[in-house]
Specification:
alpha/beta; Rossmann fold; 5-stranded parallel β-sheet; 4-stranded parallel β-sheet; 14 strands
Length: about 375
């Protein structure tokens, strides 16, 4: 009888220990909705590859808080409606601890009401300032904003005595927000928009709008605000029409793929971007150099393809989350949210990040470098 009771106690203890071990081994669930196909694939494909690469790497090194990371990812096909549906699945079915991504502004904005209601930390990889202004308690972002891009471009234009500009923007969420922010920044910086045209994200011929711009008196330069393949089409049509005015783009094209899609039509294009694209051209003492060179090597070695700033945004989002888990010492969503908001001095591919209750991005204008495409390569603009 005593032996039987003792056996029951030992068995119960073993079950309890086994249960604790199983509990300790439960994975930390990272959710992601990315635009791996559709017009945003240019951005979403390297984002997904980056998350997969580094989650695998972190797990091989022992995981986070003694637990493995598990990625739950869905492809919204660059469709905001699908992004909303997949966000519901991540929150309701997969029960994720955090979300890294949407790729696009439209997708991100469709997800925000859901994550705010569910109170799950969300780091977006999209560009528009509306994502973090006004500040939303559970929402953060890693990329530079459209407002920052407009300011950087206009600052460069003014250095070259350009004050009369034609704006050519995409009608997507990113392009529409960029148009609004560019118009406001132009008024603030003494730039006159003498032409203001738009194009659709799936358009394959922009010559009608570019012809209007060409025939507008006084235009000194053209500023294109879009992402994906559309801006490469603009470049080709621009050259076909014989336009020789300085051509600027926003940061939504900061990828080697943009140069490949544009071919020789990319020559001379200027745009603001993160240091990642010119990693090998940074000064030896630049604090970003070790980060961007290591990411570039890891990504290129794994996928045999060039890096983009978009993959870099995913890297930063994941690393900020991982750091927040460690500082919180927990996956408690409120504690993790607070830890993300308290991120200070993180050196990432996009720049130095210091967040606060009033700033859920944490980058300033110094995080942008003005680049120029010369001989099919990125160079630091003079």
């Amino acid at each position: 009888m005593v032996k039987h009771s003792l056996l029951k106690i030992v068995t119960a203890a073993a079950i309890a220990v086994g249960s604790l071990s199983a509990f300790a081994a439960d994975p930390i669930k990272i959710g992601s909705v990315l635009s791996v196909t559709g017009p945003g694939a240019f951005l979403g494909d390297p984002e997904l590859k980056t998350l997969q690469l580094y989650i695998e790497k972190i797990n091989k090194e022992g995981g986070v808080l003694g637990r493995q990371l598990q990625l739950f990812h869905y492809d919204d096909g660059s469709d905001a409606g699908k992004a909303n549906g997949f966000a519901k699945r991540l929150l309701d079915d997969d029960k994720v601890d955090v979300i890294v991504g949407g790729t696009l502004t439209g997708s991100t904005m469709s997800m925000i009401p859901l994550v705010e209601k569910a109170e799950v930390p969300f780091i977006s990889l999209a560009g528009a300032v509306v994502i973090v202004e006004p500040v939303k308690k559970w929402v953060f972002k890693t990329p530079h904003t459209d407002r920052m891009a407009a300011e950087k471009v206009f600052d460069d234009m003014k250095k070259h005595n350009i004050t009369k500009v034609a704006l050519f923007s995409e009608t997507s969420g990113f392009g529409a927000s960029g148009k609004k922010e560019t118009e406001a920044m132009a008024a603030k910086m003494g730039i006159t928009l003498v032409a203001n045209e738009t194009y659709g994200p799936k358009d394959t011929d922009m010559t009608p709008q570019l012809t209007k711009i060409k025939n507008t008196a006084g235009v000194q330069a053209v500023f294109v605000f879009g992402l994906g393949q559309g801006p490469a089409v603009v470049n080709k049509n621009y050259r076909q029409l014989g336009l020789t005015l300085p051509l600027y783009h926003a940061h939504g094209v900061a990828s080697e793929e943009f140069i490949k899609l544009s071919g020789t039509a990319a020559e001379g294009v200027r745009l603001p971007a993160a240091a990642l694209l010119v990693a090998n051209k940074l000064a030896a003492n630049d604090p970003q150099k070790p980060v961007v060179t290591a990411y570039r090597k890891a990504y290129s070695d794994r996928y045999k393809e060039d890096v983009s700033t978009f993959g870099g945004h995913a890297y930063d989002g994941l690393m900020i989350v991982v750091d927040a888990f460690k500082r919180a010492g927990s996956t408690d969503k409120a504690k993790v949210r607070d830890a993300i908001e308290a991120t200070k001095g993180y050196i990432g591919t996009g720049g130095k990040v210091t967040m606060s209750p009033t700033d859920h991005m944490g980058l300033d204008q110094s995080a942008f470098i003005m680049l120029e495409i010369k001989n099919g390569d990125w160079t630091i603009a003079k």
